[in-house]
Amino acid sequence: MKDQRADALAQILVGYSAKVKQGDVCVIQGSTVAEPLIQSVYEEVLRAGGLPIMQLTTDEAAAAFFRLASDEQLKWVPPTAEWAAENADVRIAIMAEANSRALSHADPKKQSLSQQARKGLMETSMKRSAAGEYRWALTLFPTHAYASEAGMSLSEYEDFYYGACLATDSDPVTAWERQSDQVNRLSAWMEGKEQVHITAPGTDITLGVAGRTWIPCAGSHNMPDGEFFTGPIEDSVEGEVAFSFPATYAGREVAGVRFRFEGGKVVDAAAERGEDFLIEMLDSDEGARRLGELGIGTNYGITTGTKEILLDEKIGGTVHMAIGMSYPETGGTNSSAVHWDMVCDLRRGGSIHVDGQELQRDGRFLV
Q: Is the domain of 220 the same as that of 86?
C-alpha cells in the first residue's frame, strides 16, 4: 500500500520547493529504490503542467562504475547531464540507498577523477540557481539502509523523516512557509556582520563574513530544511575545528575529522576513520582545502545524528562547514569540484559569537 506521506512530500517538493509551473522542463533524478516517491513526484509535475524528464539509475550502478570504468569513462560527462544543467528549469533529486556501504571500497582516486570531470556541471547549476534561472530540490526516500545508519527500524525512520519534512502537516504545501519566521529573522540579523567565532570541545575557529550574504533556508532546496548559511571570506578562516558526527561523501564515510586552518586553508587534517579518503578529497584541487560554506542549523525537530548530512546539518544547535565550492549567491568565490559538509555539535559546551556578541550558547539562540 502506498504511503500517503510520500504523496504529501511530493506535493511539497513540486508545489513549494521547486514551484513547478506550466511548461517548466523538470528533471527528476533518483534510483529505482525510490520508485514510490519518484512516481508521486512525476504525477505532481504533470498536475502542475510541467514537462518531466526521468533520469533513473539502478542501485548497483555507482559501485559497478567505480569498479569497472576506465579513466576515459570516468572523465566522460554524458551529454544529457550537460543539457540538463544548461537548459532544465527544475531539478528534483531523490536520494535512496539500499546499501549505504556500496562504495566503501571504491578507489578514491577514481572518485576524485570523476568529480573533477563533473566540476563544470556543478558550477553551471550553481550559477544558474543564483541567477534565478534554475530551481532545484533535494530529498531522500526512507530505506532500510538509512534507518539502519540512524539506529532505527524502518517504521521509526519513516515517522521521523516524514515528520522532519512536515509531510504530516494538514496542509503540507504551505507548512514550511509557516515555519520560516525564525530562520528569516536570524539570517537578517547576520547581515552586515564581519566575524564569526565558534568554540566547542576541540574547536576554536574564526571566520570572516564581511560583505557576504546570508541565505535563509526554509524548504526551497533541501527537504527537510532549517538553516542559514553564507560563504566565508576565502582567506579569513583561522583556528581548529573538530567535527562531531561521521561524514559521508561520495558513498565513503569518515569519522573523527579535525582540521586546522591558517590563512583560510586547511594546513593539517586528520580523521579517526577514513583519513586516506579525506586527504584524497582535500587534494582534489586548490579550492578543496578552503571553506565554501558556513551554515547554522535551526531545525530543533531533528535531535540526533543520522549519518546523513541532508538531515544532520539542519540539527538545531549545530554548525556545519563545507570544504570546496561556494554558492555564488552568498558572494563566495571559492571554486572546487568538491562540496563536502561536516557538522560540529554545539549543544554541550559550545558557543557562537558574532562581532563579539553571543548569538548562541549550548545550542540555543540568545538573539
A: no
Looking at the fold, whether 21 and 150 belong to one and the same domain comes out as yes
Cell of 212: 557576504
pLDDT tens for 70-98 read 999 999 999 999 999 999 999 999 999 99
Same structural domain, 346 and 306: yes
Burial 105-135 (b: 16+ CB within 10 A, else e): ebebebbbbbbbbbbebbbebbebbeeeebb
Alpha-carbon distance of 20 to 90, in angstroms, equals 7
Could you give the number of structural domains in the chain? Answer: 2
Enter the pTM of the model: 0.93
Place of cell 509551473: 21
Are residue 105 and residue 159 in the same domain, yes or no? yes
**pLDDT tens-digit readout, 287-323:** 999 999 999 999 999 999 999 999 999 999 999 999 9
- Point out the domain boundary residue: 174, 193, 228: 174
Average pLDDT of the segment spanning 311-339: 97
CB 304 within 8 A of CB 316: no
- Could you tell me which residues are beta bridge partners of residue 296? 228, 319
For residue 41 the three cell numbers come to 513526484
Q: What is the CATH number of the domain that holds 94?
A: 3.40.1830.10
Domain that holds residue 100: 4-174
Return all residues near 260 (Cβ < 8 A) that are at least 6 apart: 239, 240, 266, 267, 268, 269
Rounded Cα–Cα distance for residues 347 and 303 (Å): 10
Show which of 174, 189, 220 is a domain's final residue.
174
Assigned C-alpha cell, 333 = 568565490
| Grid coordinates given for 248 | 559521508
